[in-house]
Fold these 4 entries.
Entry 1:
Amino acid sequence: MNNNSDFLEFAINFYTWSNNLVTMISNEENYSSKFFNRKVSHIDLKNYKSSSEEFYNLTFYKLLKSVFDNTKTHIDEIENINTVHINKATIMKGNSTHILHKNSFSELHDLGITSPPYFNAREYSQWPNLILYLFDMLFNAEAIYKSLKYKGIYAYNIGDIVDRDNIYINSQMSIRRQMLGFYSMMIFEIVGFQIIGNDI
């Protein structure tokens, strides 16, 4: 991919902030040191290891990991849960994080499937800012992880959105894409999931 690629320009322009450091992992070395007012560093693809510390050194990753490591999920009270039994199926209406952390189920599951609420995309899914949304998704992912059998599968359907995160952006003029897919995979890594696929 070369510097003039529409995709590269789109990714840097819409997924990064002014004065961010952008690290390019590529087999090409002709990137300039500045791009869209971003500082650019380069790692040669041949020298890049999948176990690289680059990912784990992201400030955002460290924040989520720190919260996860230092927070003991403790739910004393749980709202009334409406439960309906249809043949062998049990349908429960309530906050899935609370239900799963309460361990209401007598057995672990082979599969979890969800299309979670998107950050502030509907009236029923509003958070004051993106960080608080991601904390909620982190604790929900932990609850799902604990409810699955060893080698159980969690299928998670989410896409990026265009919005303000209410932390760095408040103006309608500076709406950016929120990388919900990337943040979700970061959360799964922290919780303990092994990522086996990513379909776009």
Entry 2:
Amino acid sequence: MSVRVEVWGDYACYSRPEMKAERVSYDCMTPSAARGILEAVYWHPGLTWRIDRIYVLSPIQFTNIRRNEVKSKISARNVQAVMNRGAGMLYIATSDDIQQRASMVLKDVHYIIEAHFEMTDQANASDNPGKFQDIIKRRLKRGQCYHTPYLGCREFPARFRLYEGEEILTAYPDSDRELGYMLYDLDYRDPENIQPMFFRATLEKGVLDVRDCEVVR
């Protein structure tokens, strides 16, 4: 069962993991970010989303912004110590830990996500693909979601709707673009050792096709 979802927004940032202090976005949406948007619309333990294609409808444009972030995080060791003592302070004072960082982000983004779902062993006896398909399309038409989907970072919300058109006009109908290695997703099979997965991305005539890509760890 497949579905096409149109998403767009003012800004997006799909952070490259090789960039440490400063955030730099990939040229287009990653498959894991697309999956996150679909799961925000409809998540169920009885299904898992598989991304097929991502269509880039607007020209790729970068812009630089500066944002205030915190430079530290609450450590698990401190949390455990406070729990054992039954007293203590667990917070981050932004006035002390604030740090301004530059980010290279995308602007005026517009995509169509083409994906399908597969049933899992967590599905109930009453669950079936037709039922899930009806629920998903109904939620997309009504604009329903469990939480606001976002374009890479939570401060960049995504607007979305069900795409019911036949033809898709991309921003690059006559050219191909090599994007290098891109994050495909994270392998959560071992919670103690979560592994990132990458693939060599090519934008062919404005379409990122990930159906038969070679994934490396």
Entry 3:
Amino acid sequence: MPRPPQGQLVVLGRPGAVPEEQLDVALVDGPDVTAVRAAARAVTAPRVLAEIEVALDTPEATGAERVAALERHAPRPDHGRLRHTGPAAELVALIEDLADSIDGVRLRPLVLDEDLPVLSRLVLPDLFDRRVAARPLPGTTLRSTQGLERPANRFAAAGTREENR
């Protein structure tokens, strides 16, 4: 079977949950920007992504109103992640502010079908225009998009060791 184009899958995880020497991308979080920056400095993975929970303003309601409506049914669990509730422009400013400390973000929308259209219509184009984010090129792998080296084939190395015995 041929080797996949990116060599091996990108290992994405939380430091402590996955041995850090195995991580290609570390997911960091914290209740505020200062904590996220500190968490990012503490890891040695080649790339660092901050996790941000988002509840964006939509044409129907503000992010705060949407959160309050959901919390009337069940409390919103606190996962210790940075949270943004409000306008798309403020989320762009937050991500731009963090850009010197992290390599990217993993956004966790409050409600996918409500937040995703706002993210795709207002947040992503603004991040691309400000050059805080780059569009992935067609035909590239996640590994190359993240600027990660293609690892050596560990099976080929094992086969070479067997042949040398």
Entry 4:
Amino acid sequence: MRTAIVGSGAMGQFFGARLLLANCEVIFLDTDQVTIDALNQRGVTLTTDLATEHTPAKAARASEVTGTFDLFLFFTKGFHTKAAVESITHLMGPDSYGLTLQNGIGNAEVLQQVFGEEHTLLGMTDFPADLEEPGVVTSNSQGKVRLGSLHQAPALAQVARLLDSADLHAAIDPDIRVPVWEKVAFNAALNTLSAVTGMTVGQIGVDTHARGLVASVLDETLAVAERLQIGASRQRIEAAMDNAFTHHTHHKTSMLLDREAGRPTEVDTIGGAVVRLGHENGVTTPVLNTLCELVRTSTPSRTLQ
């Protein structure tokens, strides 16, 4: 499948590199000229626990590209999803699919407005990705991808095979809402708390007070999921957190990095989305709401960007 990576940050470069190393046809689409130039000039160097690999790459602004693509993988921040989708409409054909592997809730609904219900896929990945500089990415080999659709999508199995062939350990989940919400719960707890406190993942893991706040956020998020009849597993979420506390001790969450850089955060599509859905469905989320409000008070308004 001719594939476009929409949003070429750490995760976009990681997935694009994996696909390129599996001899897939890929182009990186981004709006940052520094990233575009670096990818075109130097390609991507990917380092995992198994090896360091390099691949040449092609990158451009969407407006500079012609032709059609079979698959668009979206990795932009949630508040950029609508603009990102609108930027690639001239590259869509009648059989094009959009796949969101972004953090948070609501991105698939944005894709559906353009791709249609049967051509919109969504998923979850727990692969980490750290960008040392444009074109230089570190990750590991232990992650996975879970895929699904909110409506029947004919190419779902084909996309899963494509990603699996690139060592991305992809599989179809019968109810994709479950892994998506489990990751939302994970991120709602760790991202918001780290953004407010400045703590790394490891620091949260060893702090009694922080762990108490994490537990409260999980209580609230899982209560919202239960009201929506989504069977998220607290045991799986806590196992993922224990793994992060052990193996990603010095990791700064993306929300903390955004706050430190003075950039807008994804609080509205992660923790804020849980709070909103809780309010709409009669579930109170006081701890998470307070953390989200604190994040909002310390980050610039998107309207000013």
